[in-house]
Amino acid sequence: MNTGTEYSTDGGGMAARSEADRVYARITRHLVPLLFLCYLAAFVNRNNIGLAKLQMQGALGFTDAVYGVAASAFFVGILLFELPSNLMLRRVGVRRTLLRIMVLWGVVAAATMFVRTPAQFYTLRFLLGAFEAGFFPGVVVYLTFWFPAERRAKVIALFMTAAAAAGLVTGPVSGWVLNSMGGVAGLGGWQWLMLLEGVPSVVLGVIAYRVLPEGPEQARWLSPDERRIVQQALGAPEGPHVAGHPLRAALREPCVYLLGFTTFSLGCATNLLIFWLPSIIEATGVTNLQHVGLYVVIPNLTGTIAMVWYGRRSDRRRERHVHFIVAVGAGIAGLCTMAVSHGALPGVMAGAIVATCGIASAYPVLWAIATRLLPRAAAAAGVALISSMGAASGVSSALFGAIRVRAGSLDPALYLVALALVAVVLLFACVIRPKAVEAALINQELRS
């Protein structure tokens, strides 16, 4: 079974490993910073309504239920268009795909400043999801063109830190815009927020189109010897384009459905922490929007650090299973701590920090597992299907809004999501076990 380049312990093997490390450090420097910025822009545009909601409700008269439906509409768009977008990636390439996605989502994000009715709000959030669909799974597949299985958790973690780091922007920066720019040019603070955080996506899309190579063979900054090292590490000389029927191959893989449920459950936890944490913090008695934004930064910052450290640790130990279960367990503990705090700020913040660190750390390990389990012919469609099932968790935002309206707090939602994560732990403990993973890999090897 070929899972990457084998390295011996003699001098030649150590030298080869050292050279490969140097090449992959160079690849990381060329790819990850730009991909990080693109994903950061995506998350900022996706999540800025968490703080904007606190002004939009007063300015437009929207209820929590309207906000919840709008947040869910985004994920409906992703759910419907994620798979088609990723299948198109195989035909049109990564650069054109990112250009289309980022320019369109940037325009729609900025256009949200013109919203006046709930129907307009729902429509633009749906379009934002439809246009963003395919970005995350497309980048994950793109990284598999470069990085072998044993190197993926770290690089996916570096890329995904943008999701946690987005809180650093949507917290203090968004809070400042909301508080300071209201009334400028006759626009509300929330309108300036949509405009100022939408335009950078368009610019980044153009930059990505001009800078990113389609794969190692097109990277002018790699020498022929360095390209050969990458191809040997991948064990796939044919490159990123593989013959076959990717959708059919993906639909035949049981792991797609199991991992899909996992991403759905993690997505519910992520939505709760991203979209509703500002409201949970406000309910503890923090009324200044800038202060709310600063409090939101803390779990996002710790989650970013934890994600990078944990992904690096998983790669170094070459172990995924236990790492994933422990991370999800931390998420469960954090959510329950938030619930039992009953609106006390210290308990809410402690729980949010632990939950964010756990959920954020689980994602790169999960995607390292997924990209290793999926056969190469099914990778693009399989990752898109798994991501689409995760996107279906967006309906949870509407549920959380309804729960808050009926119960007066989000404590029941916190317990509900924690229960879903318990099911994920049981799934990995009883079904997706290390031996089962190895058996699946052997079956893939025999089929190929």
UniProtKB/TrEMBL annotation:
* Record membrane topology: Multi-pass membrane protein
- What stretches pass through the bilayer? 27-45, 65-85, 97-115, 121-143, 155-178, 190-212, 255-277, 289-310, 322-342, 348-370, 377-401, 413-432
Major facilitator superfamily (MFS) profile domain: from which residue to which, for each copy? Answer: 31-437
* Claim: Membrane is one of the keywords in the record: yes
Gene Ontology cellular-component terms listed: membrane
Is Transport one of the keywords UniProt gives this record? Answer: yes
Q: Which UniProt keywords apply?
A: Membrane, Transmembrane, Transmembrane helix, Transport
Task: Name the PROSITE patterns for this protein.
Answer: MFS
What CDD domains does its record include? MFS_ExuT_GudP_like (cd17319)
Q: Name one GO molecular function term.
A: transmembrane transporter activity
Tell me where in or outside the cell this protein is found. Answer: Membrane
What PANTHER family does the annotation carry? Answer: PERMEASE-RELATED (PTHR43791), TRANSPORTER, PUTATIVE (AFU_ORTHOLOGUE AFUA_6G08340)-RELATED (PTHR43791:SF36)
Q: Any idea what this protein is called?
A: Nitrate MFS transporter permease
The organism that produces this protein has a lineage beginning with: Bacteria, Pseudomonadati, Pseudomonadota, Betaproteobacteria, Burkholderiales
